[in-house]
Design goal:
The complex is a heterodimer. In chain A, strands 2-1-3-4-8-7-13-9 form an eight-stranded mixed sheet, with helices on both faces. In chain A, strands 10-11-12 form a three-stranded antiparallel sheet. Chain A has eleven helices and 14 strands. In chain B, the strands form four sheets. Chain B has an eight-stranded mixed sheet, with helices on both faces. Chain B folds into three domains: 218 residues, Pyruvate-ferredoxin oxidoreductase, PFOR, domain III (Pyruvate-ferredoxin Oxidoreductase, domain 3), CATH 3.40.920.10; 259 residues, Thiamin diphosphate (ThDP)-binding fold, Pyr/PP domains (Rossmann fold, 3-Layer(aba) Sandwich), CATH 3.40.50; 102 residues, 3-Layer(aba) Sandwich (Rossmann fold), CATH 3.40.50. Chain B is α/β, with parallel strands linked by helices. In chain B, α9 crosses α10. The N and C termini of chain B lie far apart (61 Å). Chain B is globular and about 85 Å long. Chain B is built from 20 helices and 22 strands. The chains are: A alpha/beta, B alpha/beta. Chains A and B meet through β1, β2, α2, α4 and α10 of A and α1, β9, α9, α11 and α12 of B.
């Protein structure tokens, strides 16, 4: 299952690493029951599986509950400022492409104050792995609505309900020409670990959305997707190359019909597996990926797993290529060459 | 080459200003003239003066673009207050620049452009060529447009194409007037238009036609010559301030062995540093044009964490946007250089005009107690060394360092004696070794209080930095009251201790006297000329020009103590004086300030100095 990434830019560990290699000695100060604990555990699980030298991981964050993350995992790390993790991590990766760079961020951090950096980092396709904790609320400032809070929701700053249209993160990622988008719920550590691993393998900006529960300020925000009794009917876990089947009894599917997606019941009206969409995460065209990312209850299940993983050159690779080309072809090799280039004269 | 039949008069120095419509190619002829003068052995300084608009409306005062060159046999310290020769390509440029011509200055005018419509558009009520308003100037009336067309016609070039070269006709006149050779400019045409032999031919013909016209015309009765300057032996080039800053960083990168990373967002008048660094990938320079000012500095912080010499460049409004991130760099104690090429403010202000606008912002413009090292460049060539120094201080003291430049330095140029990279000081950042025993992120060198730089990828040094206050030594997040006090003190002391690593403040003139003139930044040349004049008149006046602002050189109060009176001259309302009064309240200071987007002129300074000396 965990086939090692082929990336040869980042040095691999010569010894087998374990979760213990990434556990920090700091007390984890998230609220008991917060979904972030499960995300932390998944990260600590997946890093040894990825297999890079433990010193080659860098964790970068902004501000918010999610952004305390770097203190809780034993890697190199920067706890940045609000909204700027995408920009800071861009600098880390461009300056040193031999590092595996991870970003922990939230819906407020990345989509509100950091919205500009967010769309641009994705557009550039810098090889970063961004884990976006989407709890649909500002937790650290105690319960104001965020850019993903559903319209109408009552929060501390929307006593009569919000009047803002929320972002769909997948839609934003694809609008910004994202090459990798995956989604998981915080109640499914196995899936989180799997998609984090896939994100690490992907060359380019990988955006992982975790539907995370804030137990204090937006408890149950993802209930219509994660509640035990209904989750199988409202979660579609995508598997590449396989038909899109879901439901408690594996009897529902997604087909493309009349220019849109549609939920169908297998066996009804003569519908079989052959009528269902086959997931192709590698497809360059984001059209179907976008439709999948936008699926939401009550009409649709929520798409989970790797929704999109398209090949495209990365910014950091192209930087290195341009530098290599210039070093090869430009006669200016040293500072002395530079200072003496162009018109000079001797007195 | 035309015969030299007219008498030749020697001059110490000459200030030439080229003015025309923004599309008239004034920047190009100004640059070509400077290069010719430099190759001919003159010292020089240049400054372009252009509108914020790329092509403002044709023939309007708003659309005038200018380029001023000061050349001389003497040491050239400024671009000159008023010009000896004004080359004007249309009525609007005459209208807006005549005030910068000396009485008796030579005006080279394109008479073809003085048609009624253009005269009115420029805001004249009558034709200045006919209404005797220019009587106190020496006029060289040249039908530049039509003679350029003629020169083109001989080569079979249509009028419209030929007219594009009319700036070269004006340059030809000037070359004759100042007795300069044409061959350097010919060579420029040959390289620049290598693939367009017709364009080479046309430009050469027009330049020569201008030269010949000047030789024949009676209005030019003599030629002038500016003998070679006596300069220190060595290899020279002309350098623009923003280029010098870029090159200073490249040199610091080589001397420190740290790869250079620039995260920046275009802003006038700093953009040229970004453009220059983008050219030098062959030297390993990584340039990231960010989506905004904040991303510019934040990417630099990320690069600094990995071990790069990290730079961000901006101007005043951008510095405001970067404030929070500078705080992060201070808190994480990562080295980086923030370049502020200052312009007129507040807000968008005067983007293309120079002002010493941001000293207080540089010192205090952040939340919390947030000290950074601050150095200031005083001229285009000096900017190379101050950029190098800013990088050295940042890297060796693990502290963000601000380099203050100004529009007038960034766009201006002067001659630069080319150093050898090996002669520049070595830069030794405190990089932690793999598996260093007992490594702690905030363990400090007891002498300098500098922490070590542990680069990601290094074995045994995994650690976290961040904006939250950290426990000293361990770097663990801490809200302990006494630890916060300690860390605030340590960050301040670390910067203060830089005093032990910077040169003592120099005095130009005697160490004691009646008046000490204090300046910083671009005003150095004007102040020095003014002080020279005062001293030549027997006045006991000296000059202290500050390149190190935070911290100030150790001997600063001793320097001040040697003088009866002190005056601080600045192109703002009094920012450095505010700082000096805060640090050294024991001295009495006078001040002279100007906030007009313009440099000081020598006359105004000497008038103020004389007045101060006379006051009881």
């Amino acid at each position: 299952m965990f086939e090692r990434p082929e990336n040869t830019t980042i040095e691999r560990s010569s010894v087998e690493l374990t979760k213990q290699d990434f556990v920090s000695d700091q007390m984890v100060k998230w609220c008991p029951g917060c979904g972030a604990h499960a995300i932390l555990s998944s990260v600590a699980n997946v890093f040894p599986k990825i297999g890079y030298k433990k010193e080659n991981f860098v964790m970068v964050s902004g501000i918010g509950c999610s952004s305390r993350f770097p203190y809780y995992v034993n890697t190199y790390g920067i706890h940045g400022i609000h909204g700027r993790a995408a920009a800071i991590s861009s600098g880390v990766k461009i300056a040193n492409p031999h590092l595996s760079v991870w970003v922990a961020t939230g819906d407020g951090d990345s989509l509100a104050i950091g919205g500009n950096h967010f769309i641009h980092v994705i557009r550039r396709n810098i090889d970063l792995n961004i884990i976006l904790f989407n709890n649909q609320i500002y937790g650290l400032t105690k319960g104001q609505y965020s850019p993903t809070t559903p319209m109408g929701m009552v929060t501390k700053t929307s006593p009569q309900g919000t009047i803002e249209h929320p972002f769909n993160i997948g839609e934003l990622v694809m609008g910004a020409q994202g090459t990798f988008f995956a989604r998981a719920v915080d109640t499914n550590p196995k899936l989180m670990t799997e998609i984090m691993f896939e994100a690490a393998k992907h060359d380019g900006t990988s955006l992982i959305e975790i539907l995370q529960n804030c137990i204090i300020f937006a408890d149950g925000a993802h209930q219509q997707v994660t509640a035990k009794d209904i989750k199988d009917d409202f979660q579609l876990v995508l598997k590449n190359g396989e038909p899109m089947i879901f439901g408690k009894n594996k009897d529902k599917g997604i087909r493309f019909f009349s220019n849109r997606l549609e939920v169908v019941q297998l066996g009804e009206n003569g519908i079989t597996e052959n009528d269902l969409l086959i997931h192709d995460k590698y497809q360059q065209d984001p059209g179907v990926h976008l439709m999948l990312a936008k699926m939401a209850p009550p009409m649709f299940p929520v798409a989970l797993g790797v929704i999109r993983s398209a090949m495209y050159p990365t910014y950091d690779d192209m930087v290195e290529e341009q530098i290599a080309y210039a070093k090869e072809n430009n006669p200016v090799k040293t500072v002395d060459d530079l200072l003496n280039s162009g018109d000079t004269w001797v007195i | 080459m035309a015969k030299k039949s007219k008498p030749i008069v020697d001059l110490e120095d000459v200030v030439v200003k080229f003015v025309g419509d923004s599309g008239d190619g004034m920047q190009l002829v100004g640059t070509l003239f400077s290069e010719t003068a430099a190759l001919d052995g003159n010292d020089l300084a240049t400054f372009p003066d252009f509108p914020a608009e790329i092509r403002a409306p044709h023939n309007t005062v708003a659309g005038v673009s200018g380029f001023q060159v000061h050349i001389g046999k003497k040491k050239i310290l400024t671009t000159g207050d008023y010009c000896d020769v004004l080359v004007t390509m249309n009525p609007a440029s005459l209208k807006s620049n005549l005030k910068w011509a000396k009485h008796g200055a030579t005006l080279i005018l394109d008479t073809d452009t003085f048609d009624p419509a253009a005269i009115e558009k420029a805001g004249y009520s009558s034709n200045p060529l006919e209404d005797r308003s220019l009587e106190k100037y020496h006029l060289v009336k040249a039908p530049i447009t039509s003679l350029t067309r003629e020169a083109g016609k001989d080569l079979g070039v249509d009028n419209k194409t030929a007219e594009r070269s009319k700036n070269m006709f004006a340059l030809g006149i000037l070359y004759y007037l100042l007795n300069k050779p044409l061959d350097n400019t010919f060579r420029f045409f040959e390289t620049k238009f290598k693939k367009k032999p017709d364009v080479i031919k046309l430009n050469k013909a027009v330049l020569q036609a201008g030269y010949n016209f000047a030789d024949t015309v009676e209005a030019i009765s003599s030629q002038y010559t500016i003998p070679k300057a006596t300069m220190e032996k060595g290899k020279y080039r002309n350098i623009v301030g923003n280029t010098a800053v870029a090159w200073g960083f490249i040199a610091a990168s080589e001397r420190s062995g740290r790869p250079l990373f620039l995260g920046s967002y275009p802003i006038t008048p700093a953009t040229e540093i970004l453009m220059e660094l983008a050219k030098h990938k062959s030297l390993g320079v990584k340039v990231f044009q960010a989506e905004d000012e904040i991303a510019g500095i934040c990417s630099a912080i990320g690069a600094a964490y990995t071990g790069s010499l990290a730079i961000t460049t901006t101007s005043g409004p951008g510095l405001s946007l970067k404030s929070e991130a500078i705080g992060l760099a201070v808190m994480t104690e990562l080295p980086m250089v923030i370049v502020d090429v200052q312009r007129g403010g507040p807000s968008t202000g005067l983007p293309t005009k120079s002002e010493q606008s941001d000293l207080l912002q540089a010192l205090f413009g952040r939340n919390g107690e947030c000290p950074v090292i601050i150095v200031a460049a005083s001229s285009p060539a000096n900017a190379f060394y101050m950029a190098f120094e800013a990088a050295k201080l940042a890297l060796e003291h693990m502290t963000p360092t601000m380099l203050l430049s100004e529009g007038v330095i960034g766009f201006g140029s002067e001659l630069f004696k080319i150093p050898k990279a090996a002669d520049l000081p070595a830069i030794q950042p405190p990089i932690a070794k793999p598996n260093e025993p007992d490594y702690k992120p905030f363990r400090r060198d007891p002498e300098t209080l500098v922490r070590k730089w542990a680069l990601p990828g290094t074995e045994g040094l995994r650690h976290r930095v961040g904006g939250l206050e950290k426990e000293n030594i361990t770097g663990i997040v801490s809200t302990d009251p006494l630890n916060h006090q300690l860390m605030v003190n340590l960050r301040a002391e670390k910067v203060q201790k830089v005093q032990n690593f910077i040169p003592r403040q120099e005095i130009y003139g005697d160490p004691e006297g009646d008046l000490l003139v204090i300046g910083w930044g671009s005003t150095k040349g004007a102040i020095q000329y003014a002080v020279d004049e005062m001293r030549a008149a027997g006045k006991k006046v000296s000059h202290a020009h500050f390149h190190y602002i935070m911290p100030l050189p150790k001997n600063t109060p001793e320097v001040f103590a040697g003088f009866k009176k002190i005056i601080v001259c600045e192109l703002n309302s009094g920012q450095f004086i505010y700082y000096l009064r805060m640090l050294f309240p024991q001295f009495k200071y006078s001040q002279y300030n100007k906030v007009q987007g313009l440099p000081f002129v020598v006359n105004e300074l000497t008038a103020v100095f004389n007045q101060i000396l006379e006051e009881e």
